[in-house]
Amino acid sequence: MNSELRFNALRGEWVLFSPKRQGAKRPHDIFEKKRPVSPKSKCPFENLEKSGNLPPYFQFPESGSWKTAVMPNKFPGLDTSPKEHILHSEKFHMTIAGYGYHDLLITKDHETRFSELTEGEIFDVFQALRKRYLQVSGDPKIDYISMFQNWGPSVGASLYHPHMQIIALPVVPSHISHELVYSLRCYEKHKSCLYCDIIKSERKGKKRIVFENKHVVAFVPYAAQEPYEVLLFPKEHEVFFETASDAVLKDMAIAFKKVLKSIQKKLSDPDYNMYIHTAPATDGGEYPYHHWYIRILPKSNIDAGFELGTGVQINTVFPEDAAKLLRLQG
Ligand SMILES: [Zn+2]
Ligand SMILES: [Zn+2]
């Protein structure tokens, strides 16, 4: 198959699809398979008091034995101590204080990874994220809240115990603002949500669909930056993750588990990053041109000189082939 350059309309970026670079490797050979289970005895989340973690903000389920807890990170990237906002500003140098929140979400069982949680337990994880998001977004100094999971040492997880992180920032980061610029441009031009248009087109074309249920659709994007990346969208137009209904989050939990299981099985259990992409938490911002989603990125290659120098990713697997391999029955 010949190489192609495809345009990612959400990010305004080109991706180079060049299947020949994969050589004779089969899908599961392009992923690393090193993820040793570290012993429970060394895990700081087995005894929170003893390991010096601050008490959780809250737990789910709210009564009885907990399965998911949200608590402050013991080693936060930023905190709420700064009183000033702008510390320094001149022609091209600007410094603002590292004000924000850095929280951890952990699930109870050391050995039960996210794909092995029940759908109800994943729903609890989403509910806990939504609850913490709403608490933190009430702080007027917070402009964006990032929620993500790193699964495996090759993608940045320093601890084995299944967990997610929630980082609230006093700025809107560039990946988010770039997407807002592109989706706003399309909204003004076509008078519709770019994400809704993409969802409609993917559901009609079917060839990149991985899974669908009543409220959620999962597909490999047309210009996927990484082999086998999957996006999961609420089908109805929804700007913010934090206002998603229980019905949508329940279907998202089902879809998320199915897609993770498929990636685990069909690709020989790669490490992965996942994050929730939602609109900024800026006061009063409505963002009618935005649509929240979850992105799962199985880890394969690292960015080298070409990617770093140009922003053009090289992907060795066409999205249609990736979706065909990962596809699940509803
Ligand atoms: Zn543990
Ligand atoms: Zn939409």
From TrEMBL:
GO terms (BP aspect): galactose metabolic process
Protein name, entry field: Galactose-1-phosphate uridylyltransferase
UniProt keyword annotation of Zinc present: yes
Residues annotated as the enzyme's active site: H163 (tele-ump-histidine intermediate)
Cited Gene3D superfamilies: HIT-like
InterPro entries reported for this sequence: ADP-glucose_phosphorylase (IPR053177), GalP_UDPtransf1 (IPR001937), GalP_Utransf_C (IPR005850), GalP_Utransf_N (IPR005849), HIT-like (IPR011146), HIT-like_sf (IPR036265)
Organism in which the protein naturally occurs: Candidatus Wolfebacteria bacterium RIFCSPHIGHO2_01_FULL_48_22
Reported cofactor(s): Zn(2+)
Residue ranges of every copy of the HIT domain listed in the record: 194-306
One Pfam family here: GalP_UDP_transf
Keywords carried by this UniProt record: Carbohydrate metabolism, Metal-binding, Nucleotidyltransferase, Transferase, Zinc
